[in-house]
Amino acid sequence: GALPPNEFVTTPGQSELLNSFKLTTRTKENWRFGVYNAILGPVRSEIINIDNFERRKETLQKVSNYNYLTAEYLLPNTGFIQISNAALMSGPGANSAMPALDFRLRDRQNAHQIAGSMQLDYQRVDTAASLGHHYHFAISRINRRWGWSMTHAGDYIPGSLFFAAPGRHYASSSAGITYQNFKPSRRFLNVFGAAGLSSRWAANPGE
Q1: What are residue 51's phi and psi, to 5 degrees?
Q2: N or C: which end of the chain has fewer CB within 10 A?
């Protein structure tokens, strides 16, 4: 719950892992599945009153449950498509979820690659909720002496649930070339070099 304006919470302590289990399996049709679940113990912290500097101990959450589910389909040439979701249930009105999609595609020569990821970040505390996202896409030439890559990524961080802070949107783009030679010579066992250019910007939502 919300604290009075004259109180603040110090850094919470870490919760103790009480129990966990993991199950993974693979089918003949190139599907892979995974399930992980963990039960976490109490999180305790110290609350300080800034008027009289009194300190008191309080349990922020008694018990929480973390689970992660994933399904992955394997494609030729070490490619894959994966969907997953991570969820944390910390008590009544305090939950979060992070569904994601990841993929990688390669040609038959294993020389060109397209890869990317998209992820949502949903959080809810009491009656307040926020939804952020992250994405990343890249196309590149790999496993060759001369290579290149182009990437674009973005993050949207919603406003704080506790403070009157606006959300923020970050984006970045980059391009570069690489040179690698793993053939030993008289002086060097291998050689690698890279050069690139990147740009990054940030703005409040709507700007």
Answers
A1: -80, -45
A2: N
